[in-house]
Amino acid sequence: MENFRKVRTSEEESPLPFPDLPPDVVEMKVKEGSKIRNLMNFAMAQMELKGSRQIVFSGCGRAVTKTITCVEIMKRKLGGLHQVTKVRYKTLLEVWENQDPLPGGPAQNLTVHKNVPSICILLSRDPLDPNQTGYQPPEPRHGPGTQLGDAEDTSGSSAKGLKRPLPPPHEELLTKKFQVQVPDNPRGSGTTDRQPDHHH
Predict the structure, then answer these.
(1) 3-class DSSP assignment, residue 67
(2) Any idea which UniProt keywords this protein has (predicted)?
């Protein structure tokens, strides 16, 4: 494959895995190179300015993580959203072009079918069937919207604050353990120093 270069990737179209969606529901197709800020600006405008009741985020392959991130941001910003998550596989079609074709020969293309994990997440202001697979109820709100914003910032920073400092103390403990063993090393080196004395 070293002489081949990927020239095109297309996604196999498949219907959204949610029954009873309104025909005008907005689907945010998240790609690997999508900018989260752009996605969120558009999605928030749909939900707040245009008054959409439901929105779908979908992504596959390397875009799955970014899709989940967008959903979590939207749930935090809007609050009270019902969620249904569906995971499945999608087929990607990759077209590879031969960069070193035989002289005078036809251009050679390879088409590769790849099965990649795909995620579709429906967010809804209206209640959804809690018995369906992948349903998550709205998260409880912590008070008025302004306080929620503050809580969001502090919880976000405290969560980060808790997650990041934890490894260094463990590392310090490890280094302390090694430091406790350090005095043994000079003794060990002392015994090696003595060995030549025995030889003399």
Answers:
(1) helix
(2) Nucleus
Burial 106-128 (b: 16+ CB within 10 A, else e): eeeeeeeeeeeebbbbbbbeeeb
Q: How many residues does the chain have?
A: 200
The CA distances from residue 154 to 5, 74, 158, in Å, are: 47, 17, 6
CA angle, 26 as apex, 22 and 29 as ends, to 5°? Answer: 135
Contacts of 55 (CB under 8 A, 6+ apart): 25, 26, 27, 28, 43, 46, 47, 74, 122, 123
- Using one digit for the tens of pLDDT, what is the confidence trace for 26-57? 999 999 999 999 999 999 999 998 889 999 99
Cα-Cα-Cα-Cα dihedral sign, residues 119, 122, 127, 132:
negative
The DSSP 8-state label assigned to residue 102 in this structure reads P
Closest CA to 133 of 37, 17, 47: 17
For the question of whether the overall pTM of this predicted structure is more than 0.70, the answer is: no
Which residues are CB-contacts of 133 (< 8 A; sequence separation ≥ 6)? Answer: 86
Q: What is the 3-state secondary structure (H, E, C) of 5-43?
A: EEEEEEECCCCCCCCCCCCCCEEEEECCCCCHHHHHHHH
- Residues 76-124: pLDDT tens digits? 999 999 999 999 999 999 999 988 877 777 778 899 999 999 999 999 9
